[in-house]
Structure prediction request, 449 residues.
Amino acid sequence: MKSRYVSALVAVAVLLPVSIGAQSPAAAPAKKIVRMYVPPKTVWGDPSIAGVYTNNDESLIPFERPAKFEGRTLESITPAELEELRDQRSEDRIEADRNRAEFRSPIHWFENMFPNNSRAWLVTDPSNGHVPPLTSEARQRAAVRAAAQAGKGPADSAADRSLYDRCITRGLPGSMMPAIYGNAYEILQGPGYVAIQYEMVHETRLIPLDGRPHPSPAIRMYMGDPRGHWEGNTLVVETTNFTDKTPYRGSSEFLKMTERFKPVAPDTVEWSVTFDDPHTWAQPWTFAMNLTKKTIVSDRSSTRATKATMGWSAFSMPRAPRRKPVATS
Amino acid sequence: MKHLSVAAAVVASIGLCAGRARAEEKTLSGTVSDSLCGMFHKEMAAKQGSKITDRDCVIACLNYSTESSPKLVFVEKGGKIYQIANQKFPGVIRRAGDPISLTGDVNGSTITVTKIDAAK
Prediction:
């Protein structure tokens, strides 16, 4: 009997600190249960990510980790810090516009003045948040380009202007980088294909999903040649066969760009892009941002591009029944 | 001379205290608007075919940014309107039209914003 009491006392003595420890705030935080979002399927069985998206909310995010966050990871930025960053970035953007001497445009023209940024910076890999340095080969290429342009005016001929200036292409990933307006993208799906149409410049990429090989390296394209496949619910698109006319941050025509479209919520797809180009960077690197689903896009701007997109969105959405014209006297 | 200096110091410190007493830190609930519309954006929205939100209305009003152009104001629940002394405080314009809690030094009908929170 006595030994039973002793055992009970020992058990209480052992368990008490454990339960107190579990309740104290200094205890290790409980593991978060993160439920993965599972998107619905298309009728032919692919994950469904189709829709009209925008990344207006990703405007004004610095590409690389700002100096003030040296040593921090993206995950360590608190919601309060992020909200403060959003406020400051908005104010800085407006202030920059206020201080423009030559042409001060009304702020409601822009779609990127008040973004609800999803993160503090874009580069996710390497973990230091910085794009790896250029190789000597890439620096040499840049010097050759600069030398070829030396002594020329900015517009001696049409070819002196960029392909974007001439509304030919924004290239990749430029076509999906948020700008002052026109940041809508429609993802369409069919059996064996995904298509992405970009509001700005109106290009469309047709991405086969059947595993066919890329064409001969002799064939080079402004937007490269994309091939897609599904990894779980994530659409993975590998693009090669770029030209040297659409470099991104000094990339070469040998760039292999891998995009991942990962649905993370019913209205959100995380878009990440990995650059693999040993002719330009010593190691591959990645940036990421969110695309948010919209039903109506770009309703503030009156650009031709926007009107076209809105017309196109209306075409792809259920139509209201037509009314009979009202007779006028 | 000595008496004069003491008297001047006393008067100055009374003045300072009185000045401080006038500005009082307060937390107010309401929305950021513009001095043209104040409490209601209905009239302006009607001119635009009612297609604009309160926030869009504020942003559009602030565009004509001369010295005499509309400024951001704070409309407290109940209708009292405060001039915002520090117009460029980060987040003020971004939250135009949203229900918020605004903390700041209130001096008469002017507020110098020190903090913004979402409405509780």
About this structure: Strands of chain B lie at 24-34, 72-76, 81-84, 99-107, 110-118.
